[in-house]
Amino acid sequence: MTDDLLQRYAELVVRVGAAVVPGTVVQLRADVAHQELARAVAEQAYAAGARRVYVDYDDGHVRLSALRHAPDDALRETVQWELNRLREAEQEGWALIRLTGNPEPHLFDGADPARVTAVPLELAKEFRRILSGGSVTWTIVAAPNEGWAEQVFGEPDVDRLWEAITLPMRLDQPDVVAAWEEHRLTLARRASALDALDLDSVHYHGAGTDLTVGLIPGCRWTGGGLQTSDGRWYMPHLPTEEVFTSPDRTRADGIARLTRPLVMPRAGALVEDLVVRFARGRVVEVEASSGAAMVRAELATDEGASRLGEVSLVDGGSRVRAAGLVFHDTLYDENAGCHVAWGTGFPFALPGGGAGLGPDEMMALGLNQSAVHTDVVIGGPGVSVDGVAKDGTRTPLITDDVWVLPVAG
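Now predict its structure.
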């Protein structure tokens, strides 16, 4: 990895991902193993005119000590100063950047699943509310490191990992910002075509999956980024290849079989050969060759954890798929194929963007609410997705992994 590549990557994170403009306060959260990229992102943020850049470092070993010794209630406790800072970020329109890429994937092996998946519920729900509120920009990007490279390649070859992410991140393009703008518009046009269908449900089928998920009437599909309330575009995830919406939390029935391994977001646990069965919107059965206990523990986090908050469409043209790797990081792997997510939904998917609605009103419309949100990939070769109208008319959206819905422009 050259310094030029590092700086180009950091500039992409700042200008396209978080859309930092002069005067912005930036909060960057990273693992201690991400220090090199964190420093480059801070440099590029200040170069873009940031007023201040705060960097908060996580250390998995400190968290492991908490898992070993802290009281159960401390693992779920929300501290007031953390809430205060989140609300300050909302009021002042900060840019929030999160680096991922687990440097020690097996650090929590053997830990109690209920403790590993524990989250401060009040803080988590407030955080997700603010992310969907249109006041802040935010983005999640990966930081290559030896531990993550070991998981992908079986050896700690960081340079090889940097090379692997070049294609999905469009760093192979001469003007990377222009390339992402073109891609953003492509995904936005797909979302508009889906909105025009006014679907009642989507049906995923093939490769062991047969899942029908009902949609909220008038729901809005999103692709290619989000806008703040003052009209700035930003990319919550880099890379992204998806168009998505939030379904009706009470309407999911059938079987979902994962086509890619799942790495649990907080636990780092590898879940393989996962099959989940839904009935009346809720996960009622979980089977896996590894990691099933961790999945069950997360699904018990709160009432909404076992219900869907997202349905997503990704076809075989994905650049993440073209990289030819299982990245063992949800940020990348969810963009390799169609996926669904259990946990919280997105208020901006509601008619009118959910403006003026409180939590109870959103729930009444069918939007799921939870402290968790975990994406699981069910798409790939042999998988098709149909849209179903209220009268039962079926429209092919993806057929055998190929996008087939006509798109304007």
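The first strand starts at residue 25 and ends at 31.
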